[in-house]
Amino acid sequence: MTKLFIIVTFLLCVQSNAQEFTWNENRQLKWEDFKGEPDENSNAAAVTASGITFSYSIEKSSVHGVTGFNTKAFAHFYPEHSWRKKDVVNSHILKHEQFHFNITELNVRYFREQISKLKASSKIAKQLDALLKQANIDLEKMQRLYDAESNYSINKAEQQKWVDFVNKELKRLEKYKSK
Fold this sequence. Notes:
four-stranded antiparallel β-sheet; single chain
């Protein structure tokens, strides 16, 4: 039986030569991680560039068609596209930025949970592509809602609600965490 492996990789944030890194519960962001040039025309004190990286392989045989698939999905932080205004930022804003990255990890976990429900079939590539597209839509919506409801961390009560929600969801989906 001949096996054919198809590998597709999606990088959904701008790649750079910087040492991007994946989300890890034991590594918190530091201001030194923000290496991009600040946008002086922006009202933002800092910007976190993070996104979902995803790849998959599909195993096929000439006799049985699609026989299996493997996926890898991670939350990545991109230092060269993340920036801060040094004279404005503080530890409260850094925590807000950390939760942008945590929200990316949360959406990766949602994505992995959806992938775990799939079965190998001739439609698997289209199903994975559709799930990835939806994961990125959901991630963008959640990031925007987080900023809007917390007023970019200014509304401390709403900021805390988001911290509690994200932490609760990360715990609930622990079996899907990045390793």
